[in-house]
Amino acid sequence: MGARCFYFSFCGWSSLKSNDTHPSDLENGGGDSDKLKLPAFREYKLDQLKAATGGFSVDNIVSEHGEKAPNVVYKGKLEDDDRLIAVKRFNKSAWPDTRQFLDEAKAVGQLRSLRLANLLGCCCEGNERLLVAEFMPHETLSKHLFHWETQPLKWAMRLRVALYLAQALDYCSTKGRSLYHDLNAYRVLFDQDCNPRLSCFGLMKNSRDGKSYSTNLAFTPPEYMRTGRVIAESVIYSFGTILLDLLSGKHIPPSHALDLIKGKNFQMLTDSCLEGHFTNDDGTELVRIASRCLQYEPRERPNAKSVVAALAPLQKQTDISSLVLMGINDEATQISNLSPLGDACSRLDLTAIHEILEKIGYSGDEGVTDELSFQMWTSQLQDTLNGKKRGDNAFRAKDFNTAIESYTSFIESGTMVSPTMYVRRCLCYMMNNKGQEALGDAMQAQVISPDWSIALYLQAAALFSLGMDNDARETLKDAVSLDPEMRGN
């Protein structure tokens, strides 16, 4: 199987498993921080974040606009934590005031909600300014709404996005963070369970004078055009534009949308993919809420709490998980009776994978290395085997950089082929956030031993680490079909 090229967007992996959406979650606004189990906000060292992102490698950029983004977001993994993170690196001219940056970051870092991609920490060294947040793996609302490939976003899911986003804004407002900069479909992310979250990054303005608005001017609040600044009511206006996005499946300028609404030309506003999927009453009510949010005068717009109250009764299929509504059935968990290794790979639990590989040793090399006994007398081979031993000792001690060096030296010597060594180096690469290299090793192990399920399990893990979830699930199924432990189950 060849790996397809995959384009990341900033979305991030949730560090929690919030379980599937439950009707009570629709009501309580996701503010129950007890479910989050997140670490306290902390300050990171620049070296830590460099290591986590592979030296701010281009391969780890997850910003939707790639390197062209004014402030680039990277996917990363900390050495002392299995948690995947999103690291936002500001350009050099942003945040000249160190104290202001730290104070703002610490204030946002106190927020904890199931409706936010929460801020975990920051870094402020020299002229570097970085933020660290939860990583969301299922991309952005922009991707699912405007650039979908397999199916359009369902009506019930659009309503859920609207409610969860309103709840996020209401939560932030109650915590004294009512300003949100550049609220748009790129700022709405989907977590591990495909539940929508609001990116925490928009809660921090990133310029000296607070004038931060990068969206197309046709979509900006009227008062921004007059004063160059956003106020709390501006956020509700931007929320109204997202409601239009959800209704239309297109990015329609609010002035044009309001003209259509005044002319009662709702059909021109409605996404043709939704035809027959909702009632006229529901559509009319969503248009009414959007038009209230888009009022020209800020004082005439509703606050977030009243928007939540208006959206809650519209919710459909509240007993169905977001994964199902998004058409991303969690097939990894649906494969029955996964082996311990299969389960660890499906969850990308690298620590558990390491323990299992240690336990099984080199049993996968049986039949591949028999010729060694006839060559043991050569000093060159003895040196090579000593290198293998150093690699295994480093692997056992979780010194993954040394293990990579030793295994690479052994493999390049060409003395023998070892699928186990490729699998071990694959895990070491994943531990160092080098998903492409890991995938290459897992595939090489499969070439050597086509029927070895462990090679496919590790290939699935590498694909998950790269965000290629569909390919990963298919590979996981192939691994299960070859796994002697699973035959007959």
TrEMBL record:
GO terms for biological process: brassinosteroid mediated signaling pathway. It is a lipid-anchor. It catalyses: L-seryl-[protein] + ATP = O-phospho-L-seryl-[protein] + ADP + H(+); L-threonyl-[protein] + ATP = O-phospho-L-threonyl-[protein] + ADP + H(+). It comes from the Eukaryota. Its main location: membrane. Residues 59-315 form the Protein kinase domain. Gene3D superfamilies: Phosphorylase Kinase, domain 1, Tetratricopeptide repeat domain, Transferase(Phosphotransferase) domain 1. Keywords: ATP-binding, Brassinosteroid signaling pathway, Cell membrane, Kinase, Lipoprotein, Membrane, Myristate, Nucleotide-binding, Serine/threonine-protein kinase, Transferase. Its EC number is 2.7.11.1. Belongs to the protein kinase superfamily. Ser/Thr protein kinase family. This is non-specific serine/threonine protein kinase.
